[in-house]
């Protein structure tokens, strides 16, 4: 089994492997080109992101700066927006659904290191996949840690640290991130009324 195969399966792997170093270098180049582009380079940015990621849906917007490890392990649905300074450490698969918004400085970390110091200093690493559902809003400065699954229609409050799975249709916040409350029909009624008022003004 190659080091890359071990990495993607969530096993211990050696990141100094030549194949992985080549892919890291490729990713550094694409993110450098993206981050050095200007607001006039919309089509160019779109092409770079398609080259960088494993899958990209329609209507994707990422505000530079953006960082990731490999890029090819990131799969993004339609209508994705990420504000400034997003970081995705994708040593394992990161799956992001449709209609997802990231506030500034959102960090998604699949990467991990062994707890035992003697093993850790050998340079061996591991990762766990992260999945983010549809219609999710992640507040600024939030950290999503390895192995987490976030359900559909979820709001994560700013500056949260998400260490455990979050179920569908909730607002969650804090360090560690915990469910604050369910999103209910009352929320739907309230915000649809606000939308109607907007179009009446």
Q: If you average the pLDDT, what whole number results?
A: 97
CATH domain fold name: UDP N-Acetylglucosamine Acyltransferase, domain 1
Please give the domain count: 1
Helix and strand sequence: HEHHEEEEEEEEEEHEEEEEEEEEH
Largest sheet: spatial strand order: 3-6-9-14-17-19-20
Distance between termini? 63 Å
Strand content: 25-35%
Instruction: Find the count of extended strands (DSSP E, 2+ residues).
Output: 20
What shape does the CA trace take?
Answer: globular
Main pleated sheet: 7 strands, mixed
Structural class: alpha/beta
CATH superfamily: Hexapeptide repeat proteins
Treating each run of at least 4 consecutive H or I residues as one helix, how many helices?
A: 5
Instruction: Give the second-level CATH assignment, the architecture.
Output: 3 Solenoid
Rg, alpha carbons: 18 Å
Query: What is the CATH C level class, in words?
Result: Mainly Beta
Salient structural properties:
5 helices; UDP N-Acetylglucosamine Acyltransferase, domain 1; 7-stranded mixed sheet; 27% helix; 5-stranded parallel sheet; 20 strands; 201 residues; alpha/beta
Summarize the structure.
This protein is α/β, with parallel strands linked by helices and 201 residues long.
What would your notes on this structure say?
It is a single chain. It is globular, with a radius of gyration of 18 Å. 27% of the residues lie in helices and 28% in strands. Helix 2 packs antiparallel against helix 3. The chain is of the alpha/beta class and 201 residues long. The protein has five helices and 20 strands. It has helices spanning 3-8, 18-35, 42-52, 117-120, 185-200; strands at 13-14, 55-56, 60-62, 66-68, 74-76, 80-82, 86-89, 94-96, 101-102, 107-109, 111-112, 124-127, 130-132, 137-138, 143-144, 149-150, 155-156, 161-162, 170-173, 178-182. The protein has a single domain, classed as 3 Solenoid (UDP N-Acetylglucosamine Acyltransferase, domain 1), CATH 2.160.10. Strand 19 (170-173) and strand 20 (178-182) form a beta hairpin.
